[in-house]
Amino acid sequence: MSARLPDGSLQSSSTKLTPREEEIFLLSVSGKRIKEIAALLGVCVQTVKTHRACILQKAGLPPYSTFAELLLRCGRFNWDWIDRDN
Fold first, then answer.
1. Candidate CATH numbers 3.30.470.20, 3.30.870.10, 1.20.1440.230, 1.10.10.10; the one for domain 17-77
2. Element (H, E) at 43
3. What is the rounded distance in angstroms from the CA atom of residue 80 to the CA atom of residue 64?
4. Residue 25 and residue 33: Cα distance in Å, rounded?
5. 26: enclosing H helix or E strand
6. Do the beta carbons of residue 18 and residue 8 sit within 8 Å?
7. If residue 60 lies in a helix (H) or strand (E), which one and from where to where?
8. What digits encode the pLDDT tens for the residues 24-45?
């Protein structure tokens, strides 16, 4: 089974985000940090990091990519999140 992505390409069901990955992605794009996400979900920080790594892999980004790069590609990065005073 597959679904169409906004660019018209096909996404197989094996590359879709799990419900937990989607939850972590949405919390990340809302500006939450890893520690905040872990606390909200009642999981350890490493669990959140592992889910984020899976999200990057499913997005086709190399493992050394930053999560911000994924957000930029999705058009979900908000430059207001950057504290430019520090």
1. 1.10.10.10
2. none
3. 24
4. 11
5. helix 19-29
6. no
7. none
8. 988 987 888 999 999 999 999 9
